[in-house]
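Encode chain A's predicted structure.
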Amino acid sequence: MFNLGKTAVLLSLLGVLTGCSLLSPAPKDEAMANLPQRQQELTALTEFEINASIYVKAPGNSVSGGLKWQQQGDFYQASMQNLFGLNVFEIKTDKTGAEVQVDGQTHTAPSASVLLDYLSGWSLPIEEMPLWLKGMAGESAEAMSYDALGRLQSFTLHDSQGREWQVSYPKFFTNRLALPKLIVLQSADTRIKVAIREWNL
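Encoded structure for chain A:
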């Protein structure tokens, strides 16, 4: 088993992916779809790519990098890049489970959360990440609040180890789906910001 800092693994499994192609710019400003239609379209949105920056402030350490995420139905591929644009981690999921590549080694497990627990002891709300990236809450979400336009503004959830996270959306793109532009996750000792630059639908 390789030796890897906890914060690095935290970043890898929160934001690891492939995304080899350039992502197109976010849609131009337009009126947001009515709420029922928006909810239906978000639910139906099962294939997308994002290009983002990720910032993590954990006990004793702060790290930042680039995040690319490619959602393909129920599964995804993700990667994190360093400041020089080089891939640091890659992770992918499929019907057989999850696989992460780091430092030239490959590790597999039934799920990404199991990999996270095994590699570093960290826990993260990654099982529902395809939902909260889109600005949606899963079945386990609690204390949901909405803004004046009816968009989900914040909610709480628990990760695989039972840790509570507050998820909030300070900024949205001004397109018809009002997709998240900035996502903030806060636990008792860790703060994560995902600043999305581009969506490719």
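The longest strand covers residues 47-58.
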